[in-house]
Amino acid sequence: MHWQLGHRHSIFCILPPHVLRDIAQTGTEEQRQAALDTLAADSTFRTLRAIRLAAPVATAAPSTVSLSAEVGTGEAKQLQRTMFDCHNTGRLPGDPVRAEGGPATNEPAVDEAYEGLGATYDFYWETLRRNSIDDQGMPLNGHVHYRNRYNNAFWDGQRMVFGDGDGVLFNRFTIAIDIMGHELTHGVTENEAQLIYQDQSGALNESVSDVYGSLVKQHNNDRQAAEDADWLIGAGIWADPARGVALRSMKEPGSAFEGDRQPGHMRDYVNTIDDNGGVHINSGIPNRAFYLAATGIGGYAGEKAGPIWYAALRDPRLKPDASFVQFARLTVINAEILFPGGEERQIIQGAWDEVGVVIQI
Amino acid sequence: MDGGFVYLPARSEPVTIDTAELPTQEADELKRLIEAAGFFDLPEASEPPRGAADYHRYTVSVTDPEHSHTVHLTDPIEDPDIQALIEYLEAKGRESRTTQ
Which of A56, A171, A213, B81 ranks highest by number of CB atoms within 10 Å? Predict the structure, then answer.
C-alpha cells in the first residue's frame, strides 16, 4: 500500500533547507505551507540517505571516545527539527506543522516534541559532541497525534512517533522530555552498535535509551547532579497518578507503578518470550548499574558516567548480540581509558557487581 | 498485543471475541473489517523496520467455518483497513479489561 504524497512545489524543490526554513517562518501562508511540504519531503530523503550511510561497515567506530571536540564531525551545530501532525490517523509522515525556528503552535504535543528533540540534540552536542543521531546532523522528525488514543511512542528506524494516549491509561507521550531522549537514542544505538532488539542485547538497547533519556532531562535541569535526579522515565504519563509515578525507575527498578516487573539484580532476571525477551523488563538491571555508577561518581552524570557508557556503546568490540557482562566489561575498560588511574573504574565495576553482573578483567 | 514503550502484562492478555455473542450489527461490522483488511490473504508475519524499537506487535487469529488464519503485525501498520481492524480489536481489549 502506498500513500499518495502531497504535491511538491517545483521552485521549493531546488531551494536549500535554510532558505526553505526562512520561507516557512516568514512567507505568506501559501508559501509557508509549500516550504513546509518541501522540507518534509527533503527531510525524509535526507533521513533515508543518512540511514543508508549509517549501515554497518567493516571500519567501525574508534575504540575510544575523548571528551574533546575530536568526537563528531567538528562541524557547526546542525539542529534541524520538523514536527508532523498525523491528525489521529495512522498515516505517516502526516502534515508538517513546525519547522526549525518556527513559532510555537500552542499545540502541546507539537511543541513538547519540538522542545524535547531540541533538548536531546543539545544534550548530545554539548555533552558528547555528537551532531544528531548519525553524528552528521541528521534531521530530527517527530510525528505526533499518531492514530487514535494510541498508548505508545516508538522509533521506526527513521523517525520518532508519539501517540496521544487514551486519557484513561496514559497521557500523551510527549509529556516527559526523557521519552524524546529515549526514542532519539534508539537511532544513536542503531547507528553505533546495532544492538539486536532481543533478550540481553535488546535490554541493553533499551537501557542505553533510558540512560540518555534520563541524562537529557538532567542536562535540561541545569546539569542536575546525579544524587538530585529522580531517575524516572516517563514521569507524569499515567492518566491516573495513583497508578504510578512513571514507567520505569532506574534508581529502584520495579517501583514505578503497580505491576512493574523490572528487576534490579541478576538474581531476579526474567526469562520470557514476551516483550522481545523482556527488553523493557530486564533493562532494569543495567539501568540500576548506571544509576549506581553515576551517583557513586557524583555530580552531573554527563561529565563522566555518560561519556563512559557512550564510549562503550561506540567501542568496536561491542557486538550486536552483546550480553550484560560483555557490555559491562567495556564500560570498565573505557573508564580506565578515559580516566586513567582514577576511581571511576572501581566505582563502575562495583556498580555492576552490585546488580549481580560480575566482571573479570 | 505485545511490546511498546513499557511492558504491561495486562495489555498482553489475549482477548477473544465470539461474533455469535455480539449484537448482529456489531458482528456484521467486525466481519466487514476482516474482509476489508483482506485478513485471510495477509502474510503470517510482518517484520519491524531495521533498527525499530518500542513498537507494538499484534497477534490476530480469526476462525470461521471456512478459514483459520493467524497473523503477526508490527507498528507502524500502513494499510488503513488493517489499522481499522486493529483499532477495533484494541477498543474491545480496553472494554474487556475495564469490565473484568
Answer: A213
Pick the CATH number of A199-354 from 1.20.1540.10, 3.40.50.1860, 1.10.390.10, 3.40.50.720: 1.10.390.10
Query: Over the stretch A15-66, which tens digit does the pLDDT of each residue have?
Result: 334 444 555 555 656 555 554 554 454 444 334 433 334 433 333 333 334 4
Contacting residues of B for A153, CB less than 8 Å apart = 5, 54
Q: Provide the pLDDT confidence category of residue A77 given band limits of 50, 70 and 90.
A: confident
Please report, for chain A, the start and end positions of each structural domain, with discontinuous segments joined by +: 10-54+67-175, 199-354
Contact B78 A1 (CB under 8 A): yes
What pTM value is reported for the model?
Answer: 0.84
Beta bridge partners of A99: A82
Q: What is the C-alpha to C-alpha distance for residues B31 and A281, in angstroms, rounded to an integer?
A: 36
Tell me which residues of chain B, numbers 15 to 44, contact chain A at a CB-CB cutoff of 8 Å.
none
pLDDT of residue A249: 98
CATH fold of the domain at A10-54+67-175: Elastase; domain 1 (3.10.170)
3-state secondary structure of A251: coil
CB contact set of B69 (below 8 Å; sequence gap of 6+): B39, B40, B42, B61, B62
Give the SS3 label for residue B91.
helix
Q: Per-residue pLDDT tens for A301-338?
A: 999 999 999 999 999 999 999 999 999 999 999 999 99
CA-based radius of gyration for chain A: 20
Cα three-residue angle B92-B95-B97, rounded to 5 degrees: 110
Give residue A74's pLDDT: 52
